């Protein structure tokens, strides 16, 4: 299933979900998306999370986002680096970025 696109000329990035996080996205692990850049503003991860929630998250948003950020227990990698090293929510997305969300939460 292809991810929705907001603009063919937008900011092209790849989103990946694993460790169980993909279950919230119809079991789709990888999404190539184009984010709308027509307003001239640069996207950051804070805005990306809202976009994800509104456009590709299929169920139980509380298991992915809490208080405007990813839920504790979900690791976020930006181009294979911990997002804490990149500025977390304020990281400015770049063309061809790969943002990975890995759930470490497991039922028992």
Task: Quickly list its features.
two-stranded antiparallel ribbon, 10% helix, 7 strands, mainly beta, 1 helix
Walk me through this protein's architecture.
The chain is built from one helix and seven strands, in the order E-E-H-E-E-E-E-E. The N terminus is likely disordered. The protein starts with 10 loop residues before the first strand and ends in a 5-residue tail after the last strand. It is mainly beta and 108 residues long. Strand 3 and strand 4 form a beta hairpin. The strands form two sheets. The chain has a five-stranded mixed sheet with strand order 2-1-7-5-6, with no helix packed on it. The chain has a two-stranded antiparallel sheet with strand order 3-4. It is globular, with a radius of gyration of 13 Å.
* Proportion of helical residues: 10-25%
Number of strands: 7
Spatial order of the strands forming the largest sheet: 2-1-7-5-6
* Helical segment count: 1
The assigned structural class equals: mainly beta
Mean pLDDT rating: 90
Strand content: 25-35%
Helix-strand topology string: EEHEEEEE
Main sheet properties: 5 strands, mixed
What's a quick, concise take on this entry?
With 108 residues, the chain is mostly beta strands. The protein is 10% helix and 29% strand.
What does the secondary structure layout of this molecule look like, with pairings?
Layout: E1 11-18, E2 30-35, H1 45-55, E3 65-66, E4 69-70, E5 74-78, E6 81-82, E7 98-103
